[in-house]
């Protein structure tokens, strides 16, 4: 039994079931037992691998994307480059290396990382030791001024609420004690809020057993970022796995040792995420006053930015067949519709007066 499972069982015994959103938050962010607070989850020795860890091209292209957006903004001399959920700092390191050739860009930016994990913060310090970096635990403490926000696999880790239509109508899903053992189980608690939180495109389509998810935290963050760039200038680039249109169905999942596992089995010891609803994310950006582009598939986005040419240059300089094969495999994993190319999507929000951002000119 994991330490967090013991803690959750004591809490539920004392105060009753916890919502799926509360459960997800504790799994990832509990100050003592939370998944992100206690480990480095990335890479072969971790539980999953993200795009920046697959190939340096990913971070390089995002860095050049940000530099072009900065130029479209008029090359402000005092701008914030912010990454939300920066992992080991790999994406930012690759991005900053790539933009050294862009005149004045490095000298014009202030680098900010929004990170809650002490373990990952130390990894980021090591990766970015050649740069002056400012760390934050919330986007709320980023200083005023024009900013470009990069968010790769950030929104999928934000807590979701789940609502299910049962025999007595809509109810919210909670996590309770399993009466048949020492584990946990899902239960339903009647809640009329479901009809207010349900995406409008789903209304009047539900049947008994229908389930939908919503992340009020993701919507609030997206709204706040959009209001900021509308007032102060800038852009937001978010890349994540998810679906373009709202739909019924459960996407809550847990990953451990690169394999899916029971969401309730080992809280605090597996990564717990949910697919991003890009329809509601786009709506929140628009409600904040931003101009929204996309979403488009990650594969198409990277191809439009020139990943094939960059990969070919690396392949031409490879030392041996093994390295060449690794590069080819990385390109396929990032861009193929059968891998990350279609499931992962890219959405951008900008100040209303800015031109179309790179890769979104015809979308």
Secondary structure layout:
Blueprint: H1 3-15, E1 18-19, H2 20-29, H3 35-38, H4 51-54, H5 56-72, E2 79-84, H6 90-98, H7 105-108, E3 109-114, H8 118-127, E4 133-136, E5 147-152, E6 161-166, E7 169-177, E8 184-190, H9 193-197, E9 211-214, H10 216-232, E10 234-243, E11 253-256, E12 259-261, E13 271-273, E14 276-277, H11 278-287, E15 291-297, H12 298-304, H13 307-316, H14 321-335, H15 340-343, E16 344-350
Parallel strand pairs: 2-3, 2-5, 3-4, 5-10, 10-14
Antiparallel strand pairs: 1-7, 6-7, 6-9, 7-8, 10-16, 11-12, 11-13, 15-16
Helix pairs in contact: 5-6, 10-11, 13-14
Descriptive labels:
single chain; 363 residues; alpha/beta; Rossmann fold; 8-stranded mixed sheet; 5-stranded antiparallel sheet; 15 helices; 38% helix; globular
Give a quick account of the main beta sheet: strands, pairing sense, barrel closure.
Answer: 8 strands, mixed
Give unreliable regions as ranges.
none
Radius of gyration: 21 Å
The number of E-state strands comes to 16
CATH top-level class: Alpha Beta
Q: Kindly report how far apart the N and C termini lie.
A: 49 Å
Number of helices: 15
Number of domains: 1
Which word captures the global form? globular
Estimated structural class: alpha/beta
User: Residue share in helices?
Assistant: 25-40%
The mean pLDDT is: 94
- The CATH topology name reads Rossmann fold
Fraction of residues in β-strands: 15-25%
Relevant CATH superfamily: Vaccinia Virus protein VP39
**Second-tier CATH architecture:** 3-Layer(aba) Sandwich
Question: What is the gist of this entry?
Answer:
With 363 residues, the protein is of the alpha/beta class. The protein has helices spanning 3-15, 20-29, 35-38, 51-54, 56-72, 90-98, 105-108, 118-127, 193-197, 216-232, 278-287, 298-304, 307-316, 321-335, 340-343; strands at 18-19, 79-84, 109-114, 133-136, 147-152, 161-166, 169-177, 184-190, 211-214, 234-243, 253-256, 259-261, 271-273, 276-277, 291-297, 344-350. It has a single domain, classed as 3-Layer(aba) Sandwich (Rossmann fold), CATH 3.40.50.
């Amino acid at each position: 039994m994991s330490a967090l499972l013991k803690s959750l069982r004591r809490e539920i015994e004392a105060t009753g079931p916890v919502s799926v959103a509360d459960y997800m938050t504790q799994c990832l962010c509990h100050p003592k037992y939370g998944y992100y607070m206690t480990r480095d989850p990335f890479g072969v020795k971790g539980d999953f691998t993200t795009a920046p860890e697959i190939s340096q091209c990913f971070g390089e292209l995002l860095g050049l994307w940000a530099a072009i957006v900065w130029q479209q903004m008029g090359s402000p001399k005092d701008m914030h480059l912010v990454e939300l959920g920066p992992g080991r700092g790999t994406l930012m390191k690759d991005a900053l290396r790539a933009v050294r050739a862009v005149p004045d860009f490095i000298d014009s930016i202030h680098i900010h990382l929004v990170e809650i994990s002490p373990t990952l913060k130390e990894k980021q310090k090591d990766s970015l030791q050649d740069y002056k970096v400012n760390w934050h635990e919330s986007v709320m403490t980023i200083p005023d001024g024009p900013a470009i926000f990069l968010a790769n696999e950030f929104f999928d880790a934000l807590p979701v609420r789940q609502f299910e239509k049962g025999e007595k109508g809509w109810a919210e899903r909670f996590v309770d004690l399993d009466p048949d053992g020492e584990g946990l189980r899902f239960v339903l608690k009647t809640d009329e809020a479901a009809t207010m939180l349900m995406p409008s495109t789903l209304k009047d389509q539900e049947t008994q057993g229908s389930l939908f998810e919503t992340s009020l935290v993701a919507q609030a963050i997206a709204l706040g970022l959009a209001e900021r760039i509308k007032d102060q200038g800038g852009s937001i680039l978010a890349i994540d796995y998810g679906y373009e249109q709202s739909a019924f169905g459960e996407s809550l999942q847990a990953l451990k040792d690169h394999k899916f596992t029971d969401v309730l089995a080992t809280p605090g010891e597996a990564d717990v995420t949910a697919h991003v609803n890009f329809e509601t994310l786009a709506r929140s950006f628009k409600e904040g006053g931003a101009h929204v582009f996309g979403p488009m598939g990650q594969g198409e986005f990277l191809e439009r930015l020139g990943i094939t040419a960059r990969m070919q240059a690396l392949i031409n300089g490879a030392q041996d067949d093994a390295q060449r094969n690794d590069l080819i495999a990385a390109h396929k994993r990032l861009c193929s519709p059968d891998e990350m190319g279609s499931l992962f999507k890219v959405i951008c929000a900008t100040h209303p007066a800015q031109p179309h951002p790179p890769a979104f000119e015809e979308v």
